[in-house]
Write a structure and sequence with these properties.
The protein has 7 helices and no strands. The protein is globular, with a radius of gyration of 16 Å. It starts with a helix and ends with a helix. The model has no long low-confidence stretch (mean pLDDT about 80).
């Protein structure tokens, strides 16, 4: 029950903070909080979801590290405050392409590992009788996705 509470609290905090945030580096940080909440919910499912948890952990580490590094490169190029986002357009194509690809993977679309690991963790939660947790996490992820 501790993992369920921590996971749902992480998702709720990330969703509420992402709704009003326009600074892209902070948005990336709140997405990290969201993914740690998802991993905690996967841990609550027990042994039914070890590989999706590992997949989500590894892909989140690689993806978010890449996004933070690219956003730092863009921030160096950018002369205005981060909230304008104009540095993304003015930076060289390398960091811009890495950042764009990272954002697409952050959406959790079907061909990427985030979608597969989240789907398998949700299935494991339903399998062990935590369907209500899966439903709440889906609603919170929808809020995060729509923002």
């Amino acid at each position: 029950m501790l993992f369920v509470t921590a996971g749902l609290l992480s998702l709720a905090v990330a969703a509420s903070l992402l709704l009003s945030q326009r600074d892209y580096k902070r948005m990336l940080a709140y997405h990290s909080v969201e993914h740690m909440g998802l991993i905690a919910l996967g841990a609550a499912a027990g042994t039914h979801s070890p590989s999706p948890r590992y997949c989500c952990t590894c892909s989140a580490t690689a993806r978010e590290g890449r996004l933070f590094l690219a956003s730092g490169e863009i921030l160096i190029v950018e002369a205005r405050p981060r909230s304008t986002g104009e540095g993304v357009a003015r930076s060289s194509s390398g960091p811009r392409g890495v950042f764009a690809f990272g954002l697409v993977t952050l959406l959790g679309l079907p061909p990427f590992s985030l979608f597969i690991s989240e789907l398998n963790m949700l299935r494991a939660e339903v399998h062990v009788g935590l369907g209500w947790v899966a439903a709440i996490s889906l609603v919170l992820m929808a809020v995060i996705f729509v923002q």
